[in-house]
Write a structure and sequence with these properties.
The protein is mainly α and 266 residues long. The protein contains nine helices and five strands.
Length: 266
């Protein structure tokens, strides 16, 4: 079946003529609330992580900074470097959109390093605790993309597709929904199941890297590449080239974690 994008107003609630609450902002809120709720569940039911509720609150603060700053800087460096070099002040115009998952991911890694300065625990063990709390936010973000009618998919000749009238009247893959399903729901179920009992340090983080990197790499085959970049070497998109290292590092971490080579000082 071929569906038509519902053309949802990106503003969920208008406060004044010039100010309103955007759906995309609400998706961030859902992600942060999920982090708090699921994190508190882990504190109660997974004592081997040795966390408490205050650590959850602080990790959210550090992580949110990492997501926002890293996501914006990553977008500039990975996708629009030359444009921002010509107009450097545009980097602050976050209301115009432009966030990179991979930049946000690196931002969180750095933020959690500073988090360990306040709560002395192995960095990888911190990341093992955080990893299962992330996919719900990722899925919410992709739903925000769908509501906004952005990051649409490539043309499809299959029996299932979606027309995005703001783009054209060609049936396309609703790639935002594919990412919502894989990066959000499936990855969450995988990590939540895998982290149900104590694992070797680094193993949960390895599953996250392999899972997200693989899902993103596959979905990118259905996602329309950015018009200002197009496809790069070997016909792969920027998102795919940025996801490949995640998969490779995840495999390396999995092998090392299963052999017990990550000690408590890692």
């Amino acid at each position: 079946m071929i569906f038509t994008h519902p053309q949802i107003n990106p503003i969920a609630l208008s406060i004044t003529d010039s100010f309103g609450i955007h759906w995309y902002g609400l998706m961030y809120l859902i992600g942060f609330l999920a982090f708090l709720g699921l994190g508190r569940y882990q504190v109660k039911h997974k004592p081997w992580f040795n966390w408490n509720n205050q650590m959850i609150d602080d990790a959210l603060f550090y992580g949110a900074l990492g997501v926002i700053l890293g996501g914006r800087i990553g977008y500039v460096l990975f996708y629009q470097f030359s444009s921002f070099m010509q107009h450097p002040l545009d980097i602050f115009k976050v209301w115009q959109g432009g966030m990179s998952f991979h930049g946000g991911f690196l931002g969180v890694l750095i933020a959690m390093f500073f988090f360990t300065r306040k709560y002395p625990q192995p960095w990888l063990k911190i990341m093992d605790f955080v990893a299962p709390l992330v996919p719900i936010g990722l899925g919410a973000g992709r739903m925000g993309n769908f509501i906004n009618g952005e990051l649409w998919g490539r043309e499809t000749h299959a029996n299932f597709g979606m027309i995005f009238p703001q783009v054209d009247f060609i049936a396309r893959h609703p790639s935002q929904l594919y990412e919502f399903a894989l990066e959000g729901f499936v990855l969450f179920c995988l990590l939540w199941w895998f982290s149900r009992k104590e694992r070797a340090i680094g193993a949960i983080s390895a599953v996250f890297l392999m899972g997200y990197g693989s899902f993103r790499f596959l979905v990118e085959f259905t996602r329309e590449p950015d018009d200002y970049l197009g496809l790069l070497q070997l016909g792969l998109s920027m998102g795919q080239w940025l996801s490949l290292p995640m998969v490779l590092v995840g495999i390396w971490m999995w092998i090392k974690a299963k052999s017990g080579r990550f000690n408590t000082k890692t």
